[in-house]
Amino acid sequence: MKKNVNDDLKNIKKILVVQTAFIGDVILVTPLLRALNDLFPNSQIDIMVTLQTSNILNNNPNINSIIIFDKKKNKLKASLKVLRQLKLIKYDIVFTPHSSITTAILIFLAGIPIRVGFDRWSARWLLTHKVKHLANVHKIKKILNLLSPFTDREYSMQTELFPTKEMIENALSIVGDLKLNSKKLIALAPGSNWFTKRWPKEYYKQLAEKLNKLNFGLIFIGSKDEENLCEEIKPDEKSINLAGKLSLLESAAIV
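The structure corresponding to this sequence follows.
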């Protein structure tokens, strides 16, 4: 039977979480951040993400700082910059839900003594703690299982974002007029970074038309690159296309 926190982790002061994939992946790691804050209330908890996803974590009370890995422009230059940061901070432990060889090498070269990741990872030989990648369970449960070598506590799988009061008030003002003319509101986000994950535009258009006939108010959200896609799907002028007009957290406030 494991203790709530293993004795050898009592001196953990600096914790890093690495998730350099996409927006959805970063949101799915928020339960882990909350769990770590509960396990280590007096420790520094940081997260390393890409520039494109960093804003989604603004105002999160479970983290101290966000390290940006801006790998899109010049990956080698960005890697060296991040490596210097990691060495300077001297983390005690790192949790890496994202199976990236690049980040595995970075956390190894940074000399972080405890490196936790999944056992099916091709770079698992760079880890000190290899955790079983559970099959047929929700991805969040798999991520929370990274804590299993150190605690037997069960943690909530609920994700969380923290838009500001101003963002929420702005969202209410945006949807106010639309709600006057509709019984219910639905937000649609038809875009995706991966074409293979994107539902066909024609299907979204059919869905939007049916929802519109049922008197649902429609709000379209997404990136600037998805503005035209949303415009093509939008069934009428009463629907609101906010693609490219909101930050990630502002979109969360709308939802």
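Residues 131 and 145 are 7 Å apart (CA to CA).
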